[in-house]
Amino acid sequence: MNKSTANNFVYFIRESIDPNIDTGIDLGDEAKTSVFVFMCLDFIFGWNPFGEIVPQKSGRGFIDYSLRAGKHYVDCFVEVKKFGASLKPKQIRKYLVTPGRKASDFRVGVLTSLDRWQIYTYSPKVGPRQPVLVMDLAIKKPAHFSSLFKYIGRAAGSGGFKLLRSLHGEAVPVVVHELRNDTLFPKIARTMREKLTRNANVQKVPQNASLRQLIEQVHKGKQWKGRGPEGLTYRELTSSLTSREVAELVAQNIRDRLGGKASTKGVRKNIRAWLNSTP
Fold first, then answer.
1. Residues 209-229: pLDDT tens digits?
2. What is the pTM of this model?
3. Angle at Cα 13 formed by Cα 9 and Cα 19, nearest 5°?
4. Domain spans of the chain?
5. Cβ atoms within 10 A of the Cβ of 203, count?
6. Which of 12, 1, 2, 23 is nearest to 113 (CA)?
7. Distance (Å, rounded) from C-alpha 136 to C-alpha 275?
8. H helices within 98-183, ranges in order?
9. Is residue 222 classed as helix, strand or coil in its secondary structure?
10. How many angstroms separate the CA atoms of 279 and 277, rounded?
11. pLDDT digits 0-9 by tens, 227-250
């Protein structure tokens, strides 16, 4: 990122926050970029700089800021990279996924280079053992900061980040993980079998173990023409897998364990997205 672009962004931040902010701050390294991120957390997102925005110790291995507010405490970490730097999941993962660490059941990670903001979510209860990217926003105008407020603003944090919980619950990696959940799968298989039984074209309805094997093959990207494994066509299998009833089972299980409002519609949409994305 060249200096001219960085200087232009300084004026852009002034427009978003306060015209009296010192424009002499250069965004050439992480420490200086971090100053402006702190201002965003304070002036735009409403976090109190005295006790709610907690700067962490300097040096390798420490997050830049953690955010704390309200009785519904949720771990929320902010990792800053220098202005214009590329953002990578591994830069936030170590702070969200920490084995053996006593922490909240839902965690939020904000990875930012100031001109780009990514929001990751993680739950040791629901979803894969990897952070899930739920938002990736390039800041092009002041209104983009406003659009982030409902997700990572102080009001959202004090309420337990309910909207981010919902986005986490509907995300494709989480939905796929829950479809293969050992505890939930018997209910999913029973529902699929009921759907297949009502389909006059289905010649044979597989048992639970066979359905599980078929879903694992789909997960690996396998498709087939005509009547394939267990006598089902690919369309018959995926039609039962994307049914509203299966989506509701998955959505309700996520809501029960995580909170938030993961919707049947959103879960169903992303089951289909997963199937459409397989090779």
1. 999 998 898 888 888 888 887
2. 0.86
3. 120
4. 3-160, 174-277
5. 11
6. 1
7. 23
8. 142-152, 154-158, 162-170, 172-179
9. coil
10. 6
11. 887 888 899 999 999 999 999 999
